[in-house]
Amino acid sequence: MNKSIKEKPLLSTQASRLNEDVTNFCFIIHYGRKLFALHTIYANFKSVYVKTLADYDNLTTNKS
Q1: Mean per-residue pLDDT over the chain, rounded
Q2: Is pTM, for the whole model, over 0.85?
Q3: What is the pLDDT of residue 15?
Q4: Measured CA distances, 62 to 13, 39, 49, 53, 57 (Å)
Q5: CA separation, residue 55 to residues 2, 18, 44, 46 (Å)
Q6: Which of 2, 9, 39, 49 has the fewest CB atoms below 10 angstroms from its CB?
């Protein structure tokens, strides 16, 4: 009987640790997706911006 009393807290701590791990994992997935979306938007904006700068540079060099 003493043994079963000792095992119960161990199981509950393992369960709470697992719960924390799952919560952290969901947190990382949630914010990771947001960061990835922001990174994609930034990359698209940057490529358009660089292309526009290159086009503008070509226009100004062709005129002169």
Answers
A1: 80
A2: no
A3: 80
A4: 72, 34, 20, 14, 9
A5: 79, 54, 16, 14
A6: 2
